[in-house]
Amino acid sequence: MINAVLVFNNAGQPRLTKFYTQLDTSVQQRLISEIFTLVANRPASACNFLPLPPLLAPPPPSSSSSSSPPTDPSTHSDLPTQITYRHYATLYFILISTSTESPLALLDLIQVFVEALDRLFNNVCELDLIFNFEAMHACLAEMVVGGVVVETRVSEVVRGVREQGKGAVRMGGKEQAGAGAGGLGLRTVGRGMWAGR
């Protein structure tokens, strides 16, 4: 199961934070900070998989209750245990998941997510994600529901987002088929200037 999807820029500013498991807000903030620090400090030649920091690791077994079974991560497959990430240009795409998820499949999921965003925004950049965050959330919702991957075909993800009316228009660009600026509530003035909502 996927427990969280995070997207950061190179400066550590979150562009997307989607948690599929309930966590206290303070824990979420500390986790976001800690995970970005871990991922950003890794060399480019390092692998894209990391163990989850101790912040969310299962609690150690308590010696006071001898009747309760030990909390071993291998016996609780729904506890988050791994971080899978990919760095594209100025953005880090990060997935927090359980040990039951294949890290290679998660890397492929990140690739599909980025390709779908690229098709929606016609060569996606960070500003597209900032100004059209609804489309990014809709794209993720087409792929992952409740922490479970439901769709991995790029064409189906893009079609689903466009049918929702959340397709994107790049600032100063042309409308894409099936998606219009009206779906996002955006107006352009003059030479592609964004006039707000």
Dominant shape: globular
Instruction: Tell me what portion of residues adopts beta-strand conformation.
Output: 15-25%
Order of helices and strands: EEHEEEHHHEEHHEE
Report the span from N to C terminus.
36 Å
Record the strand order, biggest sheet. Answer: 2-1-5-4-3
Instruction: Provide the gyration radius in Å.
Output: 19 Å
**Count of individual beta strands:** 9
* Computed structural class: alpha+beta
Low-confidence stretches: 171-197
Helix fraction? 25-40%
Mean pLDDT: 78
Break the fold down into its secondary structure elements and pairings.
Blueprint: E1 2-9, E2 14-19, H1 25-40, E3 49-51, E4 80-88, E5 91-98, H2 103-121, H3 126-131, H4 133-143, E6 144-145, E7 148-149, H5 154-163, H6 181-184, E8 188-189, E9 193-194
Antiparallel strand pairs: 1-2, 1-5, 3-4, 4-5, 6-7, 8-9
Helix pairs in contact: 2-4, 2-5, 4-5
Describe this structure in words.
The chain has a 5-stranded antiparallel β-sheet, with helices on both faces. Strands 6-7 form a two-stranded antiparallel sheet. Strands 8-9 form a two-stranded antiparallel sheet. Helix 2 (103-121) crosses helix 4 and helix 4 (133-143) crosses helix 5. A hairpin with a 2-residue loop joins strand 4 (80-88) and strand 5. The protein is an alpha+beta fold. Residues 171-197 have low confidence and may be disordered. The chain contains 6 helices and 9 strands. 28% of the residues are buried.
